[in-house]
Amino acid sequence: MTVRDVAVEAYKEALPALTASLVGGLIAGVVLGGMRAELRAVPGLLVLVPALLATRGNVYGSLGARIATALHQGLIEPRVTGGDERLRAAATAALANGVLTSTFAAVVAYFLLTFLGSRVAPLPILVGVAIVAGLLSGIVLTVVVVSVVFAGYRRGRNPDTIVGPVVTTTGDVFGILFLLIAVRTVLAVAGVF
Predict the structure, then answer these.
(1) How would CATH label the architecture of 3-192?
(2) Which controlled-vocabulary keywords does the entry list (predicted)?
């Protein structure tokens, strides 16, 4: 197999996922553009958006890489079973890391904006939004990553090639969607919106 053959094969595997990633990113942008009222109601939220989206990509991309490595090494089978301790531990760790990192990002954003003298929502609002969005998007991303990696592996695809674009797309689309839901939920509970 030549270098050209390897490159062509890699592009054939990755192109559909990259195309979906592009479309998903545009959809996420449209949703974010429609969140004007929420962005005004929660000052500092826009500063938090890149950190929250990056968190999804980093945490759940790492989950996909762990699962792909375990599949390649024969440590797990490409199917979901309740008794698979390694898979359950990896998914739980990713979900916990996602929520904790989102919370940390909200706290840092709050103190940074306060230090800079910028208008910022109360800390409990920012943290509440980060936790709800982190939990909801984490659950969806865990299911999607595990499903896509297993399905791709069973079909003879290299999960390392598809996990990045899938996590990016799913993280952007559901991250923004659940951010919108989280803002509305937290503000409704707080009696603000």
Answers:
(1) Orthogonal Bundle (1.10)
(2) Ion transport, Magnesium, Membrane, Transmembrane, Transmembrane helix, Transport
